[in-house]
Specification:
mainly beta, 2 helices, 14 strands
C-alpha cells in the first residue's frame, strides 16, 4: 500500500514539475463548433481594407507539446498568409500552413508527429485559419485584441477565440499570441506511452510581421488643363492661344472670305465727273 502511494506521488510530482514549463499560465483558446450556414445566407457587412502579405522570413508559427516527463518545442517551416488593414487597424487575417513542414526538437519525434498517429500530413497536407472578427480587448496578460476565427486542423474545423497583441506602425503590422488548444478537439487522440502520457493541451505561438508597402502612385490627370499638351509632347513648349472649347478660325487658301472678320474693305470706284468738275466751260 505504501509503495503504491509513493508511486502515485512520484507520477503526480513529475506531471506538475515537467509538464507545465512553457505552457504554465498560458490562456486556453475558447473552442466551439462553427456556426452552421443557413439555407439562405443573409447579406453581411463587408469587411474591406488592403491585404498585406506576411513576411515569412521574419514570421514564426511555433508550438509546444508536452508529455508527463518533458516538453517538446516545434514549428511549421512553410506557411503563407495576409492581414487585412483598414484605416490603421487590422480587421482580418487569413493563413495556410503546410503540415508536412512540421519540425520538432527530435528527428524521430518529428517523423512520428507527421504520421497518422498525429497530424497525418499525407491525408491532411494543409491547416488553415480564417478570421471572423477582430476586436480591441485588453487583457491582464498584456494582449490588446481578441481574435475569433475558423481553424481547420487534421480535417476538423472549429471556431476558436484567443487573445493577441496587434500593432500597426508606419512600416509594418505585427501580431503576437500564445494560447493553448486541446488536440483532441481536432481528432488528434494518440495517448502516448502508458508511463509517459501525452498532455491534451498544445501551446500555439504566433509571431507574425506584415510589411506595409508604399501606397500606389496617383495617376496624373491628363485632363487637368484642357487645351494643353502633356509635358514632353511635340509642341508642348509653344503657347496655346486657343481658348478651351473654342475652334480656331479656318485658314483659307486665297485669303479671308469677303465680309468675314479680317477681310479688307472693298474700295468703291470714283464717281464720274460732273459738268462743272474741272473748271468753267467756255
Amino acid at each position: 500500500m505504501r509503495l503504491l502511494l509513493a508511486s502515485s506521488l512520484i507520477v503526480l510530482s513529475l506531471t506538475t514539475a515537467c509538464g507545465e514549463g512553457e505552457m504554465k499560465d498560458k490562456p486556453t483558446a475558447e473552442v466551439v463548433e462553427p456556426e452552421p450556414t443557413p439555407p439562405v445566407e443573409e447579406p453581411k457587412a463587408e469587411v474591406t481594407g488592403t491585404a498585406y502579405q506576411a513576411d515569412v522570413a521574419t514570421s514564426k508559427i511555433e508550438w509546444v507539446g508536452a508529455k508527463v516527463t518533458k516538453e517538446h518545442p516545434g514549428a511549421f517551416g512553410k506557411f503563407e498568409g495576409s492581414a487585412l488593414i483598414n484605416e490603421g487597424k487590422v480587421v482580418g487575417a487569413d493563413f495556410s500552413v503546410e503540415t508536412a513542414t512540421l519540425t520538432s526538437d527530435d528527428p524521430k519525434l518529428t517523423e512520428h508527429l507527421q504520421s497518422p498517429d498525429f497530424f497525418d500530413v499525407a491525408q491532411f497536407p494543409k491547416a488553415s485559419f480564417t478570421s471572423r472578427n477582430i476586436v480591441e480587448k485588453a487583457t491582464p496578460e498584456g494582449a490588446t485584441h481578441e481574435v475569433t476565427g475558423d481553424l481547420e486542423l487534421h480535417g476538423v474545423k472549429k471556431t476558436i477565440t484567443f487573445p493577441a497583441t496587434i500593432a500597426v506602425a508606419a512600416d509594418k503590422a505585427t501580431t503576437k499570441a500564445e494560447f493553448k488548444i486541446n488536440r483532441k478537439d481536432f481528432g488528434i487522440v494518440y495517448p502516448g506511452k502508458p508511463d509517459d502520457l501525452i498532455k491534451d493541451d498544445v501551446l500555439i505561438k504566433l509571431d507574425l510581421s506584415f510589411p506595409l508597402a508604399a501606397a500606389p502612385a496617383t495617376p496624373a490627370d491628363a485632363a487637368a488643363t484642357p487645351g494643353t499638351a502633356p509635358a514632353g509632347a511635340p509642341g508642348a513648349d509653344k503657347p496655346n492661344l486657343v481658348a478651351p472649347g473654342k475652334m480656331p478660325p479656318p485658314i483659307l487658301k486665297d485669303g479671308p472670305k469677303p465680309g468675314s472678320p479680317g477681310a479688307a474693305k472693298k474700295e468703291e470706284p470714283p464717281p464720274p465727273p460732273t459738268a462743272n468738275q474741272g473748271g468753267t466751260r467756255r
